[in-house]
Structure formats: structure tokens, C-alpha cells
Amino acid sequence: QVQLVESGGGLVQPGGSLRLSCAASGIIFSIYGDMGWYRQAPGKQRELVAVFTRSANTNYADSVKGRFTISRDIARKKLYLQMTNLKPEDTAVYYCYVALGEVYWGQGTQVTVSS
Description:
The protein is mostly beta strands. Helix content is 0%, strand content 54%.
């Protein structure tokens, strides 16, 4: 059974930092895997934040370039998202995913950026 479990969300002030983690189980975790992070703010569609492509490159949303960094530990089957200089518009539920034939999603972790 495939499971993706996110953690690390919370309330942070503007300019602060958070590190999200996603622990995967029951699935192959490869450097050539399509995996990453999306987010969904209230009343908005889910949007790409940062991903690893199948060629092991990274792609970032323009709104987070220079502030967020995606990384992973293949051996431990973990995916990370380091977020710095957070802004109120980063407030959303953050989801990790792994695409392997079909797409698997975690349950999401709430990130709230507010003073």
C-alpha cells in the first residue's frame, strides 16, 4: 500500500522559514522519478511549487524561485521542501506527490504565513 505522509507545516511570520518533509512507503523511490510539491490556497486551484522531473532536473514556480528548495533522500524515501523568506501569499495546504504509473498524493500539511 502506497503512503505519502507530509509533515513540517505550521504558522510562521512573514520572512520566516519552514522545512516540509514527505515520507514515502510502499513505492519505488528513484532518482528518475517524477515527484514533488504542489499547494492549494483557499478558493484556488492546486498549483505546482517544485518538482523533480524524470530526468532528475528541478522545476520551480516563478513565485518561489530563489526562496524554496526541493531536495530528496532516495535511500530514506523522503522528499523535502525548504522554504525561506515566506510570504503571506505562500499560505496554502502543501501536498507531496509521486508519479509512478499513477499519481499518488499525500494528505497535505497546512502552511500559514501571518503576523
